[in-house]
Design goal:
The chain is mainly α. It has helices at 13-26, 38-45, 49-62, 80-104, 107-126, 129-146, 150-169, 176-192, 196-222, and strands at 65-68, 72-75, 78-79, 226-227. A hairpin with a 3-residue loop joins strand 1 (65-68) and strand 2. Residues 11-78 form the HTH gntR-type domain.
């Protein structure tokens, strides 16, 4: 798997630290139980402890790190069953967003979605995974907003944040970025056509596929780190 560096453009210092630690966890440099020492991390990144603490809180929220009595912040085991369950819920929630978006998106919103999708094509071809993922996130956020259902958007945003590290790193799987773009294409076609059921099914397939892809990816990167 490529050991690429995350794109630091526009990121806060806490974001930079979080992305670097996420990469260390997924690539096996940090194992479950490894302690995240604030002082050591501050020295590594040459910054104060404040953004370090913020990054660790983000990682705790995402489930990649846990706080333990007397040990502080440590890398959590990758709980596969929990991740799969969250993806199952996410597939339904984002599917619903697309169903409503196909009915409710304005023409301006639809064209904005189309522009995001078209812009991501260049990054897909260049294999710029960080840039592609940034637009991938914008793509999903546009569909969530396009549902014009605030409670649904709140649930979708919360789950998206929890699953963001997993969704980002499954793009490292061979040819996954190409398939992701094709799946997005099916969603865009359905939304632009105003076909709610087709949009719902297209997004459900897109998110559900990620379960198998990420499970395989994590198994390759270190099956001994996974809790069933």
């Amino acid at each position: 798997m490529p050991d690429h560096q995350p794109d630091r453009k526009g990121a806060t210092r806490a974001d930079e630290v979080r992305l670097a630690i996420e990469e260390d966890i997924f690539l096996g440099r940090l194992r479950p139980g490894s302690r995240l020492d604030e002082e050591s991390l501050a020295q590594r990144f040459n910054i104060s402890r404040t953004p370090i603490r913020e990054a660790i809180l983000q990682l705790v929220h995402a489930g990649l790190v846990e706080k333990q009595p007397r040990h502080g912040a440590v890398v959590a085991p990758l709980k596969l069953h929990r991740m799969v369950q969250m993806f199952e819920v996410m597939s339904e929630i984002e599917g619903l967003c697309c169903r409503y978006a196909a009915r409710r998106m304005s023409e301006e919103e639809k064209q904005a979605l189309k522009r995001i999708h078209e812009e991501s094509k260049a990054h897909m071809r260049a294999r710029d995974l960080d840039a592609y993922y940034a637009l991938n996130r914008a793509f999903h956020e546009a569909l969530q907003a396009g549902s014009h259902n605030e409670p649904l958007q709140e649930i979708a945003r919360s789950l998206f944040v929890r699953l963001a590290p997993y969704r980002r790193y499954q793009l490292n799987h061979p040819a996954r970025v190409d398939d992701s773009f094709v799946e997005h294409d099916a969603v865009v076609e359905a939304v632009l056509a105003g076909d709610p059921e087709r949009a719902y099914q297209a997004m459900r397939r897109h998110v559900t596929i990620q379960i198998d892809i990420f499970t395989e990816f994590v198994s390759i990167m270190g099956g001994d780190r996974i809790q069933e």
